[in-house]
Design a protein that fits this description.
The complex is a heterodimer of chains A (446) and B (480).
Chain A lengths: L3 H14 L4 E17 L2 E19 L2 E7 L4 H17 L23 H4 L3 H17 L3 E17 L4 E16 L4 E8 L7 H14 L9 E7 L1 H15 L2 H5 L20 E3 L21 E5 L2 E2 L6 H5 L23 E4 L6 H6 L3 E15 L4 E14 L2 E5 L3 E6 H5 L2 E4 L4 E3 L5 E4 L2 E11 L3
Parallel strand pairs in A: 7-12, 11-18
Antiparallel strand pairs in A: 1-2, 1-4, 2-3, 4-5, 5-6, 7-19, 8-9, 8-11, 9-10, 12-13, 13-14, 13-15, 15-19, 16-19, 17-18
Chain B lengths: L1 H13 L4 E17 L2 E19 L2 E7 L4 H18 L16 E5 L11 H16 L4 E19 L4 E19 L2 E7 L6 E3 L4 H6 L1 H16 L2 E2 L3 E7 L1 H13 L4 H4 L29 E4 L20 E6 L2 E2 L6 H6 L8 E2 L8 E2 L4 E3 L6 H6 L3 E13 L5 E13 L2 E7 L1 E6 H6 L1 E4 L6 E10 L4 E9 L2 E8 L4
Parallel strand pairs in B: 4-6, 9-19, 10-17
Antiparallel strand pairs in B: 1-2, 1-5, 2-3, 5-6, 6-7, 6-8, 10-24, 11-12, 11-16, 12-13, 14-15, 17-18, 18-19, 18-20, 20-24, 21-24, 22-23
The chains are: A alpha+beta (446), B alpha+beta (480).
Chain lengths: 446, 480
């Protein structure tokens, strides 16, 4: 870790050395450790200390990017020289307007000393709790406990300097019997907020209740999706359609639909990196302050997210602070999504279901049709039949092929509690959902 | 680098490690992306560091750092031992690595044209030409052409006396044309999807695949798909082209045979495997004509190398013979449980990751048919080409795939183009219905540069040698 003063010095030395018309420097450093366990014991246990220096040099409208994982003078000079040479040899990008200028961001509370100082012995002790509790129920625990500290410093020749230090703690576990499994996870800035006993208890409960599942025919069912599954819906919506780049390339479900209701009236989805209920981040990878973007307001398609490049291609648009690192061609992406809670408890959802399926979690989901957001995947770690307001038996896992936008148009109830989840890039805070129809197209043998 | 590896090993031993290995890796890369006439990204990267893996008190520890000097070697080795001792507080038995591995040697990927010696201008010119040709086709909304080149300098040393130096070179390229109209979006890719095809070759790889020469066809097919018939639903005979079959092999065989997965090591993330130990040697995985081999030596394969990341030499292992399941992918630790020695499949994604059992080149051995004869022999079926979507359950049984394009086969001839083709099945039932495999004339080792596994996650570059093959009685048409 460098600290803000040293990071600023490094960035200024890069900017001073560069002969580009404009130059951007991203300096990222991290210390991360992960203790992994399977079959009730620690089988992998790792730690990493890394630095990444990324330099974007602009000559007119020609751009070159070079990266190195060091920040000493030789590495800086070599990297700037390479980026400059790349810029010289490539075609100009007529859409490029400028690197962004300074914006004002509010510092966020994203660092906890306890997480930064968490030791290998403490991680092992936490894992021991999960393994012991599983064993007490004749179950086997697997999972991972990760703690990390990172620094992100961004500066450019237009006056941007942004600096943030973060910590993140995450535990996840799959606890298994011979015929069943249960899952739980937690994310927090402060590792002391993670209650490993509660994590273990949640997964154990699911593993015990889902033992000896039986086959149920696939078909279309009413479903209750736990938060773990609902997060997947937000991931696909974000990746497939909530970027300005997807809209500009006419491959988003938002194309032609701004101002129209395309999901249920009760559905509100937004991105807000400053919200302390998420994992807060103050600025994006161009150093632009994060802004809240409301994607769906009462089901109406409202907006997508921008970086400086996509904003520069449209009139009256500015960056919303969602840039990915330079060189990533995916375009701007949401990183901190929220699906607005409702008023139902999961117990109330259950009690009101005559016949349906309780889904804990999805596995290996992939899009089948991007503009309709049709996704296929499996259920996993606890799938149950609901009859007359009660869970009557665990069932074998299903394959589904379902349009996610269609599902959001069929929401019967929205949970009042929310959880933070992450599978791909964004952190999502989501409630459980009860959905009128979910298309299960296959069933597996367990 | 030997002074650093020696130092790290010495410190690890002095701190109580009973085994230690050190990898120093320097990865150089170039990524070029052209999209809709704009050179969207030209990035040159460099990542170097060391990773020290140790056994202490019978358990594993690993630490890594981007700083390459003696002082950092001391710190990293000491931390690895501390982590191992922490692991040992939650263990069930001591790790057994079997017989020592003592290898001293070197390996360098053979290439004809050094891809790093080809200028960026020449590379960009080729991509821009392919891009221009695709965009000239009316109806194309996104044209993308890309190239990825990397060179990895790897030094491995262990406390048993191994010292190995390797230089591994990879070249990859691809084009993708996306069409859109009235809310419908279709895509065609070449030579393979998910960005590119890649191999352990030099720039001759890019020249051989002639991106500009295939750009018009790919773009025309993408537009034609917009108005093509929807793939019908039903139980049908299908022929899968080599690219789609490569992913089928990857998901339904390659992952299922990773022995660490069988033993539960990946249960928390990607899952386990239906190929449990009791099935080894006796389980019918597929029909009699199905033969699958793990081969880390095949020239040009994306999973080809000289030594794995435990210092075990690259080798060939039979996986399925005449349809019967015969072998796993193993490591030193897991092979010892079978009374075997490792078959050299431990691979790490960079200096900052531990090696895990990964695929090398998992190949479906060629059969006897030409593709023309196979289609002519098929009275009623669907020929599916180029993967578009993929999903499989956490034991590698229930899968569903989609392809970019398909054609009806009617009385032995290709007929109407079909869009949104999908098929589903259960792994051994599906492979049991394989009744024809094409011969070596259409056999290619396809590169999959995006295989994910592990926590923290790692990406492996693996290969699959396949030729088109026919499968009977497959459920198709899952999309409404």
């Amino acid at each position: 870790m460098f600290g803000d003063q040293e990071a600023k010095r490094i960035i200024e030395s890069v900017l001073a050395y560069s002969t580009g018309d404009q130059t951007e420097v991203v300096l990222y450093s991290s210390d991360a450790a992960l203790t992994r366990f399977a079959n009730g014991y620690i089988h992998q246990n790792v730690a990493e200390s890394n630095v990444q220096l990324s330099v974007r040099v602009v000559l007119g409208k020609r751009i070159g990017i070079a990266t190195v994982n060091a920040a000493h003078n030789d590495a800086i000079k070599r990297t700037v020289d390479v980026a400059t040479e790349i810029a010289r040899c490539r075609e100009p990008d007529e859409h490029f307007i400028s690197l962004p200028g300074p914006t004002t961001y509010q510092p966020v509370d994203s660092f906890a000393v306890r997480t930064a100082e968490f030791t290998p012995e403490e991680r092992a002790s936490a894992v021991a709790v999960i393994c012991r509790k599983a064993a007490e129920s004749q179950l086997i625990a697997s999972g991972a406990f990760e703690t990390s500290t990172s620094e992100l410093a961004i500066g450019n020749s237009e006056g941007v300097f942004a600096f943030q230090t973060d910590t993140l703690a995450n535990v996840n576990t799959v606890i298994m019997s011979d015929t069943s499994s249960g899952y739980a996870d937690r994310y927090a800035v402060d590792v002391d907020q993670i209650d490993v006993e509660a994590v273990a208890a949640e997964a154990i409960d699911k593993a015990l209740r889902s033992r000896n599942p039986t086959r149920l025919d696939p078909g279309t069912y009413e479903v209750i999706l736990e938060e773990y599954a609902v997060s997947d819906i937000l991931d696909f919506i974000a990746f497939l359609g909530l970027s300005a780049k997807a809209v500009e390339e006419e491959r988003s479900f938002m194309n032609g639909n701004f101002g129209r209701r395309i999901v249920g009236e009760g559905i509100n989805i937004w991105d807000d990196a400053m919200d302390p209920r998420g994992i807060p981040v103050a600025f994006d990878f161009e150093g632009v302050a994060k802004q809240r973007v409301d994607f769906f307001i009462n089901g109406v398609a409202n907006a997508v997210c921008y970086d400086s490049y996509t904003a520069g291609k449209e009139k009256n648009k500015t960056s919303t602070g969602h840039a990915l690192p330079a060189g990533d061609t995916y375009g701007p992406l949401p990183g901190n999504m929220f699906l607005g809670p409702g008023t139902s408890t999961k117990e109330e959802m259950l009690a009101s279901t005559k016949r349906g399926i309780w889904v804990s979690r999805f596995h290996y989901t992939r899009d089948v049709h991007p503009t309709k957001v049709v996704v296929t995947g499996m259920t996993r770690d606890g799938t149950f039949l609901i009859e007359n307001g009660e869970i009557t038996r665990p069932v074998n896992n299903f394959r589904f092929t379902q349009g996610y936008l269609e599902a959001l148009n069929n929401v019967l109830a929205i949970g009042k509690e929310t959880k933070i989840q992450r599978e791909l890039y964004p952190f999502n805070r989501v409630p459980a959902l009860k959905i009128a129809a979910w298309n299960f197209t296959g069933v597996t043998e367990y | 680098m030997k002074h650093i590896t020696d130092r790290a090993l010495d410190v690890a031993r002095s701190r109580g490690a009973t085994y230690a290995d050190v990898r120093i890796v320097n990865l150089e890369s170039q990524t070029l992306v052209v999209r809709n006439g704009v050179t969207e990204a030209v990035t040159v990267g460099e990542s170097a560091g060391l990773g020290v893996r140790v056994l202490a008190d019978g358990a594993w520890g690993f630490a890594s750092s981007s700083k390459l000097d003696l002082g950092e070697a001391d710190k990293v080795a000491a931390l690895a031992v501390r982590i191992a001792k922490a692991s040992a507080t939650v263990k069930k038995g001591d790790v057994n690595l079997g017989q020592p591995v003592v290898e001293r040697g070197s390996y360098r990927t053979p290439v004809q044209i050094d891809p790093f010696a080809v200028s960026l201008e020449e590379k960009l010119s080729l991509l821009l030409k392919a891009d221009e040709i695709m965009r000239a086709i009316k109806g194309i909304v996104v044209a993308e052409s890309s190239m990825e080149i990397q060179r990895e300098f790897k030094t491995f040393a262990n406390s048993e006396g191994s010292f190995i130096e390797q230089v591994l070179i990879e070249t990859g390229c691809g084009i993708e044309a996306t069409s859109a109209k009235d809310g419908e979006v279709q895509r065609r890719s070449y030579p393979n999807s998910v960005g590119r095809h890649q191999g352990t070759e030099g720039f001759e790889f890019v020249l051989r695949y002639d991106l500009p020469g295939n750009a018009a066809r790919i773009a025309e097919e993408a537009v034609a798909l917009l108005s093509a018939k929807q793939c019908p639903a039903g139980v049908r005979t299908i022929i899968l082209d080599g690219t789609q079959l490569a992913l089928q092999v990857h998901e339904s065989c390659g992952h299922a045979i990773e022995f660490d997965r069988v033993l539960g090591s990946e249960a928390a993330y990607a899952g386990t495997s239906f190929l449990t130990i009791d099935k080894l040697g006796t389980f019918r995985y597929g029909s009699d004509i199905v033969n699958i081999t793990a081969d880390a030596t095949i020239p040009g394969g994306l999973g080809t190398f000289g030594y794995d990341d435990e210092g075990v030499p690259a080798q060939i292992t039979p996986i399925v013979r005449d349809g019967i399941f015969k072998g796993y992918l193993t490591s030193r630790e897991t092979a010892s449980l079978l009374g075997q020695t490792s078959n050299g499949t431990m691979r790490a994604d960079g200096w900052n990751r531990i090696p895990l059992i990964r695929m090398t080149n998992i190949n479906l051995e060629p059969g006897t048919w030409t593709l023309d004869d196979l289609i002519a022999d098929t009275d009623d079926g669907i020929y599916m080409q180029t993967n578009k979507s993929w999903s499989i359950d956490d034991k590698r049984l229930n899968f569903q795939f989609g392809t970019e394009i398909a054609w009806e086969i009617v009385r032995g001839k290709l007929g109407a183009m079909l869009k949104n083709a999908t098929y589903t099945g259960i792994t051994p039932q599906f492979w049991g219905k394989c009744d024809a495999i094409c011969n070596r004339d259409s056999w290619t080792v396809w590169g999959t540069p995006n295989c994910g596994k592990g926590q923290p996650s790692q990406t492996a570059h693996v290969g699959h040698g396949t030729a088109p093959a026919r499968f009977r009685d497959v459920q198709v048409g899952l999309m409404k």
